[in-house]
Structures are given as C-alpha cells and as structure tokens.
C-alpha cells in the first residue's frame, strides 16, 4: 500500500511537472507571437516614417510638405543620438495633417 501511494504521488508529480512545462511552453509561444506581431507593427510604422522622410530628397515635395504641415519632417541623422526620437516626435506633432499629406502624395501609402 505504501509503495502504491508513493508511486501514485510520483506519477502525480510527473504529470504536474509536465503540465507546468506545457503551460510554460504555451506562454512562451504566445509571447513569441506577440513579440513578432509587435516587431512587424514597429517595422510598419518605421517604414511609414521613412516614406515621409524621403520627401526631403525633392525640393518641390519638401516645399509642398512645408505648406501642408507648417514645418519640414527632417529625417534622423546617424551621428546624432537623439535625432530619431526628434524626427518621430515631429511626425507625431503634425499627425492631424498626415491625411492631407497622404492625399497630396498618393505614392506614400
């Protein structure tokens, strides 16, 4: 009887440990899924920002952009550590006018 009880306890522990491992595995998979989704969302947002920053390459487009937004959307500079933040902040400052920008430059969307 004692041997039977000990083996039952051992079996329950093994099952319990296996379920915990399964739960942990499932939570890791879910975390990876959301991490991948978040990464693609960030990549998509940065791609949209890069499209807006590309308007700086053309003087005519830059002038239209300034007339719509009231300012230019300067792209980040690699040698300035805070320039990416500043560039994104500038886009967020004019986000109400972005619909008009996208209407003016349909190739951005």
Topology:
Blueprint: H1 2-53, H2 59-69, H3 83-93, H4 98-104
Helix pairs in contact: 2-4
Question: What can you see in these coordinates?
Answer:
The chain is mostly helical and 109 residues long. It has one domain (2-108). It is 74% helix and 0% strand. It is built from four helices and no strands. It has helices at 2-53, 59-69, 83-93, 98-104. The longest helix has 52 residues, at 2-53. The chain is globular, with a radius of gyration of 27 Å. It starts with a helix and ends in a 5-residue tail after the last helix.
Short description:
This protein is an all-alpha fold and 109 residues long. Helix content is 74%, strand content 0%.
Largest sheet: none
Gyration radius from CA atoms, angstroms: 27 Å
List how many beta strands DSSP finds. 0
Distance between the termini: 74 Å
Structural key phrases:
mainly alpha, single chain, disordered N terminus, 74% helix, 109 residues
